[in-house]
Design brief:
Blueprint (H helix, E strand, L loop, with lengths): L2 H4 L8 E3 L1 E2 L2 H9 L4 E4 L1 H7 L10 H11 L5 E5 L8 H13 L4 E5 L10 H14 L4 E5 L10 H15 L3 E3 L6 H8 L6 E4 L7 H7 L3 E3 L3 H18 L13 H5 L5
Helix pairs in contact: 5-6, 6-7
């Protein structure tokens, strides 16, 4: 079992995966002891002035993986839906990410119009990726809880069973936050379950007790950073004085994150 996959198999100690959007955010997280870091497609897209989930950031995603893939941490890449509906093209992307040093890939079945890709198509992408890059940990995401199903649980199970059979190493259900529903779903899975952390949802300790294997922070850190930047600027404009926060790094500390 490769080191990244092994991090998903510590009962009661889920992998907490923070998601970075650039080199500095990833290295800063690594310096705080995070041995595995994901990317956030929203952060990567928004930083580039592009839409998320619209297959517009393939180049930016590869560029970031090129910077981060040989770092001091294990890198998992959020590749949206693979930036294509052609399984062969998605497999080629996965092989390129693996060659750059990525150890994981996140593939979602949600589409920009709010619908879901056909489950057989998403399963075909997963199978193609595993054939092209067998060592890459495929985290198969379904957006059933974000697409307006009155009863998302049956469709979630149907899709995840298909993705497991296609070779997914783990599955991801953002939007699922009810502990009872998480527990039921865990009983139907044979691969690790990834849950998206939300401030209004169960805390990390509760998710650990349920048996969740991986907890992702998604775009949360990027959104928090964006909020802090705007609030700081508006506070200074309003007359605030003194340091913004004692923990704010100085110029030299941030410059030290550079890797030549």
């Amino acid at each position: 079992m490769n080191p990244f996959a092994a991090l998903h198999h510590h009962p009661g100690r889920p992998l907490l995966l923070p998601n970075a959007w650039d080199h500095a955010s990833a290295v800063a997280l690594a310096e705080q002891g995070f041995t595995a870091i994901g990317t956030t497609s929203l952060g990567v897209a928004a930083a580039a002035g592009l839409p998320d989930g619209a297959a517009a950031t393939r180049r930016e995603t590869l560029r970031l993986a090129r910077h981060l893939g040989r770092g001091r941490f294990l890198l998992s890449v959020d590749a949206e839906s693979g930036f294509s509906d052609d399984p062969d093209e998605v497999a080629a992307l996965a092989a390129e990410l693996s060659a750059l040093g990525a150890v994981g890939i996140n593939l979602e079945d949600g589409r920009p119009d709010g619908t879901l890709a056909p489950a057989p198509l998403h399963a075909a992408k997963i199978a193609a990726v595993k054939a092209a890059a067998p060592d890459l940990f495929v985290n198969a995401r379904t957006d059933t809880y974000w697409t307006g199903f009155d009863r998302p649980a049956p469709e979630t199970v149907r899709r995840l069973e298909s993705y497991q059979q296609a070779g997914a190493d783990g599955v991801f259900v953002p939007g699922l936050a009810d502990p009872a529903a998480i527990e039921v779903l865990l009983g139907r899975l044979s691969v690790p379950l990834n849950i998206l952390y939300t401030p209004a949802g169960p805390p990390l300790a509760r998710l650990a007790a349920l048996g969740v294997a991986r907890v992702s922070l998604g775009s949360l850190l990027y959104r928090v950073a964006l909020t802090a930047a705007v609030e700081t600027a508006t506070a200074i404009r309003a007359g605030a004085t003194g340091p913004v926060a004692a923990s704010t790094p100085g110029y030299s500390a941030v410059q030290g994150l550079y890797r030549g």
